[in-house]
Every structure is written in structure tokens, then in C-alpha cells.
Amino acid sequence: MNHDHHPDDHSHLGEMDLRVRALETVLTQKGYIDPAALDVLVDTYQTQIGPRNGARVVARAWADPAFAAWLEGDATAAIASLGYTGRQGEHMVAVFNAPDTHHLVVCTLCSCYPWTVLGLPPTWYKSAPYRSRAVKDPRGVLADFGVALPPATQFRVWDSTAEVRYLVIPQRPADTDGWSEARLADLVTRDSMIGTGLAKEPAA
Amino acid sequence: MSYPFHADLGGQPGHGPVTPEPEGELWHEAFEPKAMALTLAMGATGAWTIDQGRAARETLPGYAQLSYYRIWLAGLQRLMAERDLVGDDEVAAGRMLHAPRPLPRKLLAAAVPAALARGAPTERPAPGPARFTVGDAVRTRSGHVDHHSRLPGYAQGKPGVVMHVHGAHVFADTSAQGLGEQPQWLYTVVFSGESLWGAEAQPGLQVSVDAWESYLQADDGAPP
């Protein structure tokens, strides 16, 4: 963050920057927060908890049928076995795309999202256009992402209205037989695990 | 006075196209990381429940006009002001003006990884047997309620089928009102596109919500 280099020069700061700075000072003075904890929280979601976690879950599911079956039966435990547990992933369900069925995850009421495997939600996931249209016009939403599915593919939309969080397992791309999990994980995009995208095709 | 619920967007027309963004793009303004961290750190104190947090945000007067982290920050200030933890005068002054109040917990930097890894599971011992089972035909409650609730408008008064039983979970409605956890059985209920949207539904569409037991009644096929 740029403003951290000018701690004394408020002319560089907007109203919102001043507000968070004031809040941090007051909350620290009152003993409610440890300011060092804020840095750890930000760093955690910038460098450790993000969609690469989910990509490793998907790659394992593609590579290991026993893991895929576990994921289908008890996603919370299967995902925990890879080390991803806790905040906004306490109760997980994995849903598997198939040639005839495409899953899409939304939270129409706020922005519930599986943080443990995907990190912080993207802006569009929290936005009115996505939240309003995903449950009614999923095909149109996918078009906004440049994705067109065959007319016969049926949409299955999951509105995250309680504390259950959903992870879409995209279809495994063709011509990836024998690939390592690490290589497979590189094909798994964040959007493919929400349902607004597909896994990448292997480069020709 | 009715509950001013501004966040129930499912099915609402007129919001335009979705704007995708690249995977690594986490922030759009400099204040956002700190706003996220302040909200999580204060949430970890136990001064309010996650449901009270959602209720504070979804009823903000400027909800539709505010960006996401502005909603978070305004919600945070509101939650703290309502509990006399931090006054708006202190935010304006940028320093403490009133004595602090005791809070249940404080999140220290060293405890962050364990706290995140633990999370806050909402499953609880069941208060009794589940009323519904997988495959049951149900109908959702119709009409709005005057408090925080998690049954979206588009799914109210609709026939659906129970497809999953999740155990008993903290009931968002009471938790948000400060009335305690009062756990209820939680179900995934799936609806056909036609039952939600009528003739304009996309062919084959199915939509599910997660619904607490008191949102549901057995569907005997009679009109609501």
C-alpha cells in the first residue's frame, strides 16, 4: 500500500484512509485489537489463503478417485485432510460438474463464499449484477464471462443462504491423462470453482 | 416498522452485466485491506455474532450505493456504536475519548493462524428429531418477516424438495436479534426454475437454498 510510505503526510490520504487509520488508532488505544494482528490477517489472505488451495483440492479429486468419493461424501473432512479448515469453510459441500450439469454458486443475500479454499471473494461475486442474476439467468451470467455451454447442459445453482459453503469441482480437461497433481492444479481457475468458468485446456 | 432489508437481490432486474476480474486482484482502494482486517479482528472479540454483523450491514441506509468494503466499515462502526464500544466522535477525533468496555476476547497476532484455522462452526447438538428427510416435498414460508432472516424473497412461498439434511445449526434469525443460538435442523431445498420464475425460467434450471426447519412446512399439494 502506497500510503504506508507517507505516514505523516495526510494530504495523500483520502477520507476512507483517514477513517480506517482513526479506527485502528482508537481500537488499539482501547485495547480491543492487536494492530500486529491486522497485518497478519491481510498477509494471510494475500499470500496463503486463496484459490490455489481450492485448485489443489480439485487436482487431487481429478487424480484420485478415492479422494473424489470422500469429497463427495464429506467435503469438510476431505478438504481438511489437505490442511484447509476454518473461517468461512467450516461446513463444506463439493458439487461436481458433468457433461449434462453445470453448477454455479452464489450468495444472493450477502457474499458468503468458501474462504478456506478460494480466499477473499472477487468484487463481482459481491456485486448486485451477479447476486441478482445468478439464480435466474445463469446462462447469461456465464456469457458475461465469455463462457457458452451446450444448450442441453442444465444449470444447478446453489444459493449460500446459511453457513454451508460450496466448492464446484470443474470437469477435468481432456488430454491430461497421467498428469501430476501440481500440473493439473495449474489448469484450475478460481472462476471454474465458483462455476463462472471452466478449467483451462492444456496448452497445445 | 418493517425491517429495512436492502440485500435481498436474487432475481431483481436491472442491475446490468457482471464485470469479471483477474484472479489476483484482491483490492481496489488502499483502505480495503485494513477495513477487512479491522472487521475480522473486531468480529473475533465476540462482541457480536456473525448474524448480528450481517444484520448491521444489510440494513445500512446507503447499502445499494456503497462499495463492499465501505459497507463493511459502516457496518463495523454501527456495531461498535450500538454497543458503546467506539463513538463516532472518537472516529472523527482519531483518538480514544471514552473509557473502553470489556470484551470477551482479543485476537493477538500470534493467535491469528489458529483462529482462522478453527473458524466458527455453527453445527450444534440437535434439539430433537429432524422433521424432514431427503426427498420430502416442502413449501417455504411466505411473506417477509420484520427481522434478519435468510430465506430470500424469490424462494418464499415456493414448493421444493429436501435434497440434503445438514444437522442442526445456529438459527440465524434469533442469533441476529440477540436471542441466542436456538439451533434448528438445516436443509438444502431445491426448486425447479419454473416454480421460481414461471414460464421465463431457463429450461432445466434448478436452484437451491439452505433453509432452517422453521422456514419450511410439509407440502400436501394444496395451494398456499
**Helix proportion of residues of chain B, in percent?**
25-40%
Oligomer: heterodimer
Total helical segments of chain B: 7
* Content-based structural category of chain A: alpha/beta
Question: Which architecture of the largest domain in chain B does the CATH hierarchy give at level 2?
Answer: Roll
Distance between the termini of chain A: 39 Å
Describe this structure in words.
- The complex is a heterodimer of chains A (204) and B (224).
- With 204 residues, chain A is α/β, with parallel strands linked by helices.
- Chain A has two domains: 9-47, no CATH class; 51-194, Nitrile Hydratase, Chain A (Alpha-Beta Complex).
- Chain A is built from ten helices and four strands.
- Chain A has helices at residues 15-29, 35-47, 51-63, 65-73, 75-80, 115-118, 128-133, 138-144, 181-185, 190-194; strands at residues 91-96, 101-106, 154-159, 164-169.
- Chain A has a two-stranded parallel sheet with strand order 1-4. Chain A has a two-stranded parallel sheet with strand order 2-3.
- Chain A is globular, with a radius of gyration of 20 Å.
- Chain B is an alpha+beta fold and 224 residues long.
- Chain B has two domains: 32-118, Cyclin A, domain 1, CATH 1.10.472.20; 123-218, SH3 type barrels (Roll), CATH 2.30.30.50.
- In chain B, strands 1, 2, 3, 4, 5 and 6 form a six-stranded antiparallel sheet that branches.
- Classes of the chains: A alpha/beta (204), B alpha+beta (224).
- At the A-B interface, helix 1, helix 2, helix 7, helix 8 and strand 3 of A face helix 1, helix 2, helix 3, helix 4 and helix 5 of B.
- Strand 3 of chain A pairs parallel with strand 5 (206-212) of chain B, so a sheet runs across the interface.
